[in-house]
Amino acid sequence: MNFEKARFNMVEQQVRPWEVLDQDVLDLLMTVRREEFVPAAYRNLAFADVEIPLPCGQVMLKPVIEGKILQALQVRHSDSVLEVGAGSGYFAALLAARAEWVRSVDIEPELVRLAHDNLERYGVDNVIVEEGDAAQGWPERAPYDVIVVSGGLPQLPRALLDQLRPGGRLFAFIGEAPVMKGRLVTCVEEGRFHSEDIFESLVPTLRNAPRHDAFRF
């Protein structure tokens, strides 16, 4: 496979037509080598418009979804980022290329090892991958400028929002099958939030996802 041609086609034929027009995001998807984070058995699908299976019933998000999330979050070089759900480490690598540092937390030890090993091999040095249940946040390094929840949540817990700095942005998939909303929440000021559903999708629900204490907008 010609990876460079496939990467170009992914950006120009999948991501850009889905109204991902931020050139910094498109350049990032061209720069970070997605194939380095895809399980060997699926490497020929690294740039396809599909979710790629990972251990523990999880998936790598479609490239168009990754592009949409990055465009919505507008990550800056001074940002501290919490990623809930480490996956293969690819999305953490994308975030790390834009942020000051990223803390990626996953409840599954196998995914923690996978993400850590991929990021280390790729030379990413501003991501810490930890094992734990961060479905209601990770207070140790809070508050954060950006929080990304890569798995589904039936409801958005108040605890996650309480860990955002004023001006901070949170992205999460909210709801249950057959449809989830890709939701962007901005902390306008302490205790006040603006919410916008920016697309629909369906992803595996986080293990131990809370079903109570939802924030009402």
Task: Describe the protein in words.
- This is Protein-L-isoaspartate O-methyltransferase.
- It holds the Pfam family PCMT.
- Keywords: Methyltransferase, Transferase.
- It comes from Pseudothauera lacus.
- Belongs to the methyltransferase superfamily. L-isoaspartyl/D-aspartyl protein methyltransferase family.
- With 217 residues, this protein is of the alpha/beta class.
- The protein has one domain (3-201): Rossmann fold, CATH 3.40.50.150.
- It is 28% helix and 29% strand.
- The protein is built from 6 helices and 9 strands.
- The chain has helices at residues 3-15, 23-31, 63-73, 90-98, 109-122, 158-161, and strands spanning 52-53, 59-60, 80-84, 101-106, 127-131, 144-153, 164-176, 179-189, 192-201.
- The strands form 2 sheets. It has a 7-stranded mixed β-sheet, covered by helices on one side.
- Strand 1 (52-53) and strand 2 (59-60) form a beta hairpin.
- Helix 1 (3-15) crosses helix 3.
- It starts with a helix and ends in a 16-residue tail after the last strand.
- The mean pLDDT is 96.
